[in-house]
Design brief:
This protein is α+β, with helices and mostly antiparallel strands. It has one domain: Alpha-Beta Plaits (2-Layer Sandwich), CATH 3.30.70. It is built from four helices and four strands, in the order E-H-H-E-E-H-E-H. A four-stranded antiparallel sheet has the order 2-3-1-4. A hairpin with a 6-residue loop joins strand 2 and strand 3. The mean pLDDT is 95.
Length: 101
C-alpha cells in the first residue's frame, strides 16, 4: 500500500482542546482503518510542526478522504507527502531513459 507522511500543526482550536487529543486519535485510527488504511506511527514533535503521522492507504483517494476529514474537524492542518520505499524508488530509476552522463 502507498505510504503517506503527514506534517501536522495544531490550530488554535486544537490547542484549546489538547486534552481531547487521545480520544480524537482513537477516532482517527478507526476512520483510517474503515478506509482500508493503517496508521503506522504518530509522533508529537518539537519545531515547526506539532505532530508527524505515517500511514498507509490503499489509494490516493482514500488518503485524501482521511485528510479532508481531519482538516474539516478544525483541530489540525496538514502537509502530506507521498513516500516511496527505497526499493520502489530503485525500480523507478530503472525506467529512466538512458542518457549522457
Amino acid at each position: 500500500m502507498p505510504t503517506y507522511v503527514s506534517l501536522i500543526k495544531f490550530t488554535a482550536q486544537g490547542v484549546k482542546s489538547i486534552k481531547d487529543m487521545p480520544e480524537l486519535m482513537k477516532t482517527t485510527v478507526e476512520h483510517v482503518e474503515a478506509l482500508g488504511g493503517k496508521l503506522i506511527a504518530t509522533y508529537v514533535v518539537m519545531g515547526d510542526y506539532d505532530m508527524v503521522g505515517i500511514a498507509e492507504f490503499p489509494s490516493d483517494e482514500a488518503a485524501m478522504t482521511q485528510l479532508l476529514a481531519i482538516g474539516t474537524a478544525g483541530y489540525v492542518r496538514t502537509t502530506t507527502l507521498k513516500a516511496f520505499p527505497w526499493e520502489e524508488f530503485g525500480e523507478i530509476l530503472k525506467k529512466l531513459p538512458e542518457g549522457d552522463e
